Amino acid sequence: TGDFDLVILDLVMPGMDGRATFDRIRRIRPELPVLLSSGYAEPDPGALPPENLAGFIQKPYKAEALIAKMRQVLHG
């Protein structure tokens, strides 16, 4: 369970939606940073409260932007 340093999560997914996935991640590893990725301009605050997220990146994004956001989340 310690093999991941960060999760990049989309709220809209087949099968288990992002909220259910987030809740499961929190039960397994509450300290694991979760970066929300979405095609919407802003995350729905009712879906995942911002204080529970490590950050947000809007799709589409370039690899450089994702890398910069990941560095920001992981290294401050």
- Which structural class matches the secondary elements? alpha/beta
Rg for CA atoms? 12 Å
The parts where pLDDT drops under 50 for at least 5 residues are none
Number of strands: 3
Main pleated sheet: 3 strands, parallel
Beta-strand fraction estimate: 15-25%
As a percent range, the share of helical residues equals 25-40%
Structure annotation, total helices: 2
Q: Termini distance?
A: 23 Å
User: What best-fitting shape do the alpha-carbon axes yield?
Assistant: globular
Describe this entry's structure for a reader.
The protein is of the alpha/beta class and 76 residues long. It contains two helices and three strands. The chain has a three-stranded parallel β-sheet with strand order 1-2-3, with helices on both faces. The radius of gyration is 12 Å and the shape is globular. The protein starts with 6 loop residues before the first strand and ends with a helix. 7% of the residues are buried. The mean pLDDT is 87.
Secondary-structure map:
Layout: E1 7-9, H1 18-28, E2 34-38, E3 55-58, H2 63-75
Give a brief rundown of this model.
This protein has two helices and three strands, in the order βαββα.
Tag the structure with descriptive keywords:
3-stranded parallel sheet, alpha/beta, 2 helices
